[in-house]
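Example: DNA-directed RNA polymerase protein.
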Amino acid sequence: MFFHISMEKNMQLHPRHFGPHLRDKLVAKLMKDVEGTCSGRHGFVVAITGVDDIGKGLMREGTGFVTFPVRYQCVVFRPFKGEILEAVVTMVNKMGFFAEAGPVQIFVSNHLIPDDMEFQTGDVPNYTTSDRSTSV
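Written out as structure tokens, the predicted fold is:
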């Protein structure tokens, strides 16, 4: 579900940011560009926890921009099939319900649950809705 991994990214910085606080500006741009993004390979980037290395910059001809290779550590959220997640139900309709677990939106179809499925009702209370009675 949550992993702490090391990643790399080439960051481009405008010449107006060059000066005594170059590293701070580069790290701020990295956080702005990377946190909250998603990749199919790694998952959702929750937060950058540290910057390991900023390589030597390479100037792009004609633009003045400099590309810096940056190695950083981050926490990513990557759910897997069959994994149990704590989620908040956001909408219920005749077809099923929608829920959110962090940045992931989940839909659970009502058609996947067989009508003859029985729930254990030991110490669990029964809840009744306006359209039908269900045991949870």
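The chain has two domains: 2-77, 88-135.
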